[in-house]
Amino acid sequence: MADLLKVTTPLTGTENSTRTNPIRENDTSIQNIVNPSKVVRPDGREGVSTDAQRKALNYESNYETFMQMVRDTPGLTQMITDLIYSRMGIVVSSGMGENFTEEISNFMEMLKMTEGELVYFLKNQAASAVKFKGAFFNVLRQILDQTPSVELKTSILDFLKRYNDMSAGPHLMNQIMQNLQNIKQSIPRSYGDTLAELMMKLYTGMEPGDTTANTAVLKNEIIPYLSKYVSATYDLGKARDWMTMLTLNIARYENGEKSAFLKSFFQLMNFGSVKEKLGDISPQQLEKILANTEFERATEQYTLLDKLTEILERGMNGTESTYEAKTVFANIINSLLLNESVYMPLLHLMIPADIDGRLMFSEMWIDPDDQSQEKNSNGEREKQVKLFIKFDIKDVGYFEMILLSREDNVDMQLYYPEKLSAHKKMIQEGVGNIMERNGLHFQSLHTDVLQSPKTISEVFPKLYERMNAVNVRI
Fold it and tell me: Could you tell me how many helices (H) and strands (E) the chain has, helices first?
């Protein structure tokens, strides 16, 4: 028994000696030593803003995990340019088939744009990235900020959530079908064949809000069948992960049912402050208002990046793809998802384009409400737009730009490839002419050779602001 408990005989002469605490207060390898008589050092606790402590990952925090993923994920610009500049050679070499090769060829044709088409594409992408935008949503936002009523706030948020899920209905249905396909491939064939028969009852061409028929099949047939499968096989593998994603998507899909959405709208209109601001709006008028938002108009024409996403997803999940190709596609998709995360407080845009026969790819992060260090006459910090732009032009090189804009005044830092160092004066004059043509004025302009690429956390320190909040991981 003594051996099992790892009890040993004390060394001679130490039986009666006073044992000392082996932990020393100044030992930096021991974190958060408890001493009730005083406040001890923080040891990289969440909310401390030193660079060394920022890098100490707290695995109990969702946001810390997100920031670590942002730091560790390979740069999207480099991965996308390698893919596009090779004209999707990595996909073609994976043996995806003639039909897919033709799709890639069509995508490369879509990249050909004039300067005017490029501006139009960028505006559409920015508009499609912000759903709750326009006069109607501005009124709801104003009411939400001003009202002290908890019931009204809850009603507005419920309406917005149902609208969000309803407008995403077709996309959610496609996600559900992909979840089911992944489950089918992860379970034994005898069970997978039955699941495939149930999947045939689902229809992916429904209009947004028309979810009743599909929801009935999902809740009354598919979910019970998968529940019986788990009970019978005790499957704790990949299929269970896909089932978790499936139930989440089904919940959102059901929440976007049109009659439930209209019910939340009528409940919202019962509040006097809402009716006073919006007037008497009928369901037909509401439908026209929502159909004419910038987001909806832009989404209808937002096809180029949808095609890119489709190619990446097919390449990642395709059985013909090589392991190396799947890894590339998975890294690109992971980077895209990180930039669209709810934790990312910046607007992220991508520009793959072929301008006058020259391929390029650009990424930009925009903070439309950055806080300036300078104060105005009222003692308040001025608001400014801050942009971080990376762009790679084939046969020219890789550039980075940091731009701060306050009304017509601009501060810019532009970094260019080393091979262009002899053209510094020409670059400064060219950028100055561009600004002048657009009615902007430089407060400062710094140009230099790019030494090492910057990360978004370097350019936007506000990414760390949430570290000061209560942050737990579920």
Answer: 21, 7
Residue 473 pLDDT class (50, 70, 90 cuts): very low
* DSSP conformation class of 74: P
d(CA 18, CA 33): 22
Distance CA 226, CA 240 (A): 10
CA distances from 170 to 184, 300, 304 (A): 21, 13, 18
User: Higher-confidence residue: 323 or 451?
Assistant: 451
Residues whose CB falls within 8 Å of the CB of residue 4, separated by 6 or more in sequence, listed in order: none
What tokens were used for 170?
């077709």
Between β-strands 409-416 and 441-449, what pairing exists: parallel, antiparallel or unpaired? Answer: parallel
Give 42's contacts (C-beta < 8 A, 6+ positions apart). 48, 53
Residue ranges in 168-237 assigned as alpha helix (H): 169-186, 189-199, 212-217, 223-233
The whole-number pLDDT of residue 196 equals: 92
pLDDT value for 468: 45
Q: Which residues contact 271 (CB under 8 A, 6 or more apart)?
A: 149, 152, 155
Higher-pLDDT residue of 121, 247:
247
Q: Do residues 427 and 401 make contact, with C-beta atoms less than 8 angstroms apart?
A: no
In whole angstroms, what is the distance from residue 172 CA to residue 178 CA? 10
Give the amino acid at 337: L
Q: Which residue has the tokens 């980077």?
A: 335
Q: What is the CA radius of gyration of the chain?
A: 28
115-118-123-127 Cα dihedral, nearest 10 degrees = 170
The residue written with tokens 């032009």 in the block is 393
pLDDT mean across residues, the chain = 77
Q: Angle 109-113-116 (CA atoms, 0-180°, nearest 5)?
A: 160
CA angle 333/335/339 to nearest 5° reads 115
| 345 membership: H or E segment, kind and range | none
pLDDT at 244 over 60: yes
- Strand, coil or helix: 365: strand
Mutual angle of helices 238-255 and 150-167, in 10-degree steps: 110
Residue 65: in which H helix or E strand, if any?
helix 62-72
**Which tens digit of pLDDT belongs to each residue from 341-380?**
767 778 888 888 888 888 888 888 888 776 655 555 566 6
Phi and psi angles of residue 355, each rounded to the nearest 5 degrees, phi first:
-105, 115
pLDDT, one tens digit per residue, over 185-207 is: 889 998 999 999 999 999 888 88
Torsion of CA 246, 252, 256, 260, to 10 degrees: 110
pTM exceeding 0.85: no
Q: Token match 């998507």: residue?
A: 249
What is the DSSP code (8-state) at residue 62? H
The conformational region for residue 88 under phi > 0 = left, psi -120 to 50 = alpha, else beta, is: left
DSSP annotation of 11 reads P
